[in-house]
Amino acid sequence: MNTTQRLQTGTLERFRKHGKMGESFDRVANKVLDEAEANNSKEVGQDVRTD
Fold first, then answer.
1. Contact at 8 Å (CB) between 15 and 29?
2. Gap between the Cα atoms of 24 and 34, Å rounded
3. How far apart are CA 51 and CA 44, in angstroms?
4. At a CB cut-off of 8 Å and minimum separation 6, what does 26 contact?
């Protein structure tokens, strides 16, 4: 299922810093979320999701 989300220009620019040319927004968002969850799990001691 595809959805549309509105982002402010500044937010989109922040996401662009984490992606590569040709990489989908979905992939970049997942990469950022995976990093955030990994950092959170280190603080809490939880398992990290792996795909």
1. yes
2. 15
3. 21
4. none
Backbone torsions φ then ψ of 45, nearest 5 degrees: 85, 30
Cα–Cα distance, 2 to 38 (Å, whole number): 26
pLDDT tens column, 12-46: 999 899 999 999 999 999 999 999 999 988 776 55
Query: How long a stretch of residues is the chain?
Result: 51
pTM of the model: 0.65
CA distance linking residue 10 with residue 8, whole number of Å: 5
- Using CA atoms, how far apart are residues 36 and 50, in angstroms rounded to an integer? 13
